Amino acid sequence: MRGTRALGCALGEEVRITVMGVLPEIRPGDDLAAMLADIAEDAGVAPGDVVAIAHKPVSKAEGRIVHLADVVPGADARALAHETGKSPQLCQVILGESRRILRRRRSLLVCETHHGFVCANAGVDASNTAEGTVVLLPVDPDASARQLQHALSGVAGGRVGLVITDTHGRAFRRGLVNIAVGVAGFEAVLDHRGGRDRDGRLLVATDQALGDEVAAAAGMLMGKASGRPAVLVRGLSTSPAPGTVHALVRDPDQDVFRAPVGADGVVR
Amino acid sequence: MRGTRALGCALGEEVRITVMGVLPEIRPGDDLAAMLADIAEDAGVAPGDVVAIAHKPVSKAEGRIVHLADVVPGADARALAHETGKSPQLCQVILGESRRILRRRRSLLVCETHHGFVCANAGVDASNTAEGTVVLLPVDPDASARQLQHALSGVAGGRVGLVITDTHGRAFRRGLVNIAVGVAGFEAVLDHRGGRDRDGRLLVATDQALGDEVAAAAGMLMGKASGRPAVLVRGLSTSPAPGTVHALVRDPDQDVFRAPVGADGVVR
User: Fold this and answer.
1) How far apart are CA B154 and CA B160, in angstroms?
2) Rounded Cα gap, residues B194 and A134, in angstroms
């Protein structure tokens, strides 16, 4: 899961991040890979590029849309709705997407999803969707990323990296950033320890979360407006690999903020 | 602290991130602002650009270097050294930089710094420094950023944004990303709600952590090798403001991961 190559890893001199063309409103069953390949081809996608796309069109193409009126809330969802002020139907959907709820305060629900992501509302998104519907994260975002990556690499004539992003809050920090929820075609985490760059300078970074850096960089341009969910990142040297977002996801039992802890801060 | 302008906020079509020239090894008392302005001028810095620089040269110029042999550890530091396997001197320095230690496990110390940052070892850095020394974060990174921003805006002939970065781990995620520890010249967090972009598309992002996005984007190119700690970011529309990293720092009492919590995840 981790890259160990030193030379040329993410060490270009210039990176360009370009908004790709407009995608139409995506519907379940749409061939998003073909549509994305079309706008990437128009944008001149080339081997070595990385494309970042927001998860919402991916989820919509995969039919990960729920009509809340069709949801029958259980007892847990009704209790959670009472405590949070959210609708019982929405709470049922959030519970269905969650391994567990890590923190609750008023309407805030910080969940651990079945993928292992920690985020508000288990990634269930009610913004920019049809009235009465919510959009879920893809069931297997790495598989979604691989499918898109395959189509893009086809039009590029060589390996293209692919990151599916979502916009998350963070512990300790205010404001939202884009992070990777699916990765294909490159190592999402790089270990530069002990290597040297092409000018012989010692590489000092360890465990660089390149997949999340790409997502955050793409977030500077992407997703603020509807219809422009995809950007092209050029000039980044990446390590070829199947790639997986799980390189970026900490196991719960390795995470000092999900482990039992004493008043002295010592993790049990 | 929060931008409310909608049009033109971070909505360019292309962002370029370019490595600036090499800085020499920085010594306490060096005029880093003048040195940075020189390499930024060579790189063609222009009004509207944002420059990101790693904290280490900033800290070194400000004399935030500690010779561990000069440190006299107290009883707390000696006890912490025993528990973590770190040296008592290093523990003393870390304790001095910390408001409190949030989590401990073996050698891992997750600290809340006096600035309010949550990071390993309170930002005390032993890598890429002279033998027997450690480098601390600037005392007031926003003030450091303002000073550099003033010099850069001078050579650019107009407002340049400035981000001082550090490389941090995250709760829940593996791998390190660059985040902002000091900001000057632009709003570090933007609120796009309800606005429209220049093509009339509805803006959907709320509380975009632009300062951290810039830091993460810069991290794709910066800091992996010594001597290249500064990058130029061009094409980003920012909201003019004095700017402060504190827009990006969550108050401890607003943070559900630092509040007392029950077994059911409900924050007390």
Assistant:
1) 9
2) 19
Give the global pTM: 0.92
- In single-letter form, the type of residue at position B79 comes to A
Pick one of 3.30.1330.100, 3.40.50.970, 3.40.50.300, 3.40.50.720 as the CATH number of A2-63+137-250.
3.30.1330.100
Burial level of B69, CB count in 10 A (0-12/13-18/19+)? exposed
Q: What is the CATH number of domain A65-135?
A: 3.90.1660.10
Instruction: Give the whole-angstrom CA distance, residue A158 versus residue B162.
Output: 37
Lowest mean pLDDT among A20-29, B122-131, B166-175, B228-237: B122-131
| ipTM of the complex as predicted | 0.92
pLDDT tens digits along B125-167: 987 778 899 999 999 999 999 999 999 999 999 999 999 999 9
Q: Which amino acid is at A41?
A: E
Among B residues 15-74, those touching chain A with beta carbons less than 8 Å apart: 15-19
Q: Does A107 touch chain B (CB under 8 A)?
A: no
Chain A interface, best mutation among B15, B111, B206, B258, by max A CB count within 10 A: B15
CA distance A203 to chain B (A): 4
Helix, strand, coil: what percent of chain B each, to 5? 30, 25, 45
Residues above pLDDT 90, as percent of chain B: 74
User: Which amino acid, one-letter code, is at A233?
Assistant: V
Contact B127 A221 (CB under 8 A): no
Check CB contact under 8 Å for A103 and B206. Answer: no
